[in-house]
Amino acid sequence: MTKNNESLMSFLQINNLTQRFGGLTAVQDFTFDLQQGVLPGLIGPNGAGKTTIFNIVCGFYHPTIGKITFENQSIVGKRPNKITRLGIARTFQNIRLWSEMSVLDNLCISQHANLGYGLWDAILRTSRYQTKERDVHQTAMNLLEKMNLQDHAQNRPKNLPYGIQRRVEIARALATQPRLLLLDEPAAGMNSKEVEHLIELIAWIRKEFDITIWLIEHDMRVVMNVCERIIVLDFGQIIADGPPESIQNDPKVIKAYLGNIEE
Amino acid sequence: MMHILHKYQYFILYILFSVLMVFSAQQEWINAYIQLVIMYIGINIILSSSLNIVNGYMGEFSCGHAGFIAVGAYVTSVLNVWLFASDRVFGPAILGEYWALTLFPVTLLAGGLIASLVGLLVAIPSFNTRGDYLAIITLAVNYIVKSAIENIQIIGGARGFMGMRKVVNAMQDVWDIPWMMVFILFFTGFTVWIIWRFVSSTYGKGIIAVREDEVAAEIMGVNTRRMKMTAFMLSSGLAGIAGGLFAHVLGYINPGSFTIMKSTEVMVMVYLGGMGSLSGSVISAVLFTVLLELLRPLQVIKWVVIPLMLILLMMFRPEGIMGNRELRDFFPKHDKK
User: Fold this and answer.
1) Contact residues on chain A for B223, CB-CB shorter than 8 A
2) Contacts of residue A170 in chain B, CB cutoff 8 Å?
3) Tell me, what's the pLDDT at A260?
4) Quick check: is B289 in a domain?
5) Is residue B273 part of a domain?
6) Residues of A with CB under 8 A from a CB of B
7) What is the pTM of this model?
């Protein structure tokens, strides 16, 4: 049964991923099959290798060993902008917006991979330039409206409150028109009210844009509320994988987070 | 009609201004010295706005702009002297005066093209090298170009290269108008026009994203390598065109004119105007050129006064005259949607 569906259903598949930095093994033998529509959470203590995995999936690092396929296409060794074009987008743990440009510009520039015109079109202002530029602008404005950010279109991100910056960053990732969205600790630095909004926002984004989300998070409220499956990483290896309820009581997970209680 | 006038208002104004300039030069309403200063202003506008692409918009620190100016100056000069002037080394003119006039812009563009290819010497290392390290590479490229020219004896080596005056004279024999003024005005407008269209498009804003956060740019789908290549090649190519114009205004060039000193001069203009502000680059090129001329009586002391002003600028207004704003940002917008 599963064998038959595999070729059909393969969305993001990571096989035996290993990443070494010099003598340090950041990720070891990580195998993970992400199905379309399921929202998994990747958790683990600091330095467990979570962000490294995201960086590899985005093409920012090239793994030492391992295979990654996205919709049956190998993405290992591809440059980040190519991977974005295939439909993977992400946000960053420490917000990385282009802070001297307007929010609108941020959302326009992130459509670079699908821009559809080049230098000569820009200089000669061809009809292709006119059409594409209008589309880009329209997409950005629509997104801002959907995310309730239209009032901030002309503001610079550095002047916005933290929670809104997070929303802008998610909007910017959505502007790349992804089918897989990686959120790296979206709740980091948020107060409890903002966290509540975030939980609603994540659920709403999944429905509204029909995309698959994969999450790294420390905030257990977010993890327990939105994740349908949890992978626990420690020292670069998966130590537990399953639905939230079973993870909560898994002794190995408790040990990884709290240390060995019996000793 | 009004719509067209409104749409092309800057273009029309610039054409009118250019015609006025050329006409007053032709009629000798302005003397040869003022004409020369105006031509220098044009060349400096090309230089500062082209360097602003890399140092301002893209946020890298290129301090080897003179290298690209030199390439353009030599390529254009050699081509022109070879084709249109009788020269001791290159023999008699190959083509006539009419050709000199029609092909002069082509040789300028050829100089720009070769300069932009030399720009690859910086562009390719810039994929993985940035900041101070890339600055050192640009410096090295500046020296490579200068020393290479010094060692090519057929184009005069360290003694320099001349004969461009004959080319300009050949053009003026066809029709006696100040051709260098015409070409400088044309290419100054051309440069500002190209750069403005580049940096105001979503495509071109990719280089600003590289400046703001390169990692984010790369991951959000900006092809950072292509953007860097475009920025460096556009910047060095335009510098090459300025070099060709410079060589023909002066009539004589030598490698000593294209050292780090020249690069610094251009950098001063960029930082004076404001990084990432095209109008700033234009304004500062005008101010700086005029200032240089006003300080001419001071002779060598000029180079004490100007760096001193740079120190004061960095201390009290590090963002330059315009910051990263444009002139139009100071006026309310009329054409909203």
Assistant:
1) 79, 81, 112-113
2) none
3) 62
4) no
5) no
6) 58-60, 79-81, 84-85, 89-90, 92, 96-101, 105, 108-115, 117-119, 121-123, 125, 129, 133, 136, 172-173, 176
7) 0.92
- Which tokens in the block code for residue A208? 């509204």
Name the residue of chain A whose CA is nearest to B217's CA: A110
C-beta atoms of B208 and A99 within 8 A: no
**Token duo for residue B120:** 């690859």
By percentage, how much of chain A surpasses pLDDT 70? 95
Half-sphere exposure of B141 (CA within 13 A, CB side): 31
Cross-strand bridge partners of residue A99: none
- pLDDT 10s digits, A13-34: 999 999 999 889 999 999 999 9
pLDDT for position B337: 36
Residue A63 pLDDT more than 50?
yes
Domain residue limits at B59? 35-258
- Mean pLDDT within A98-124: 94
pLDDT band (50, 70, 90) for residue A119: very high
B294 within some domain: no
CA distance B327 to B110: 33
pLDDT band at B332 (very low <50, low <70, confident <90, very high): low
What count of CB pairs under 8 Å joins A to B?
Answer: 96
Q: Does A108 sit within 8 Å of B220, measured CB to CB?
A: no
> Are A16 and A69 a contacting pair, CB within 8 Å?
no
- Indicate the number of domains in chain B: 1
Which pLDDT score is estimated for A2?
A: 44
The 8 Å CB, 24+ separation contacts for B315-319 are B319/B274, B319/B275
Q: Does residue B333 register a pLDDT over 60?
A: no
The rounded distance, in Å, linking the Cα atoms of B92 and B305 is: 46
The helix/strand/coil state of B203 is: coil
- By CB atoms closer than 10 A (0-12, 13-18, 19+), residue A170 is buried
**Is B147 among the domain residues?**
yes
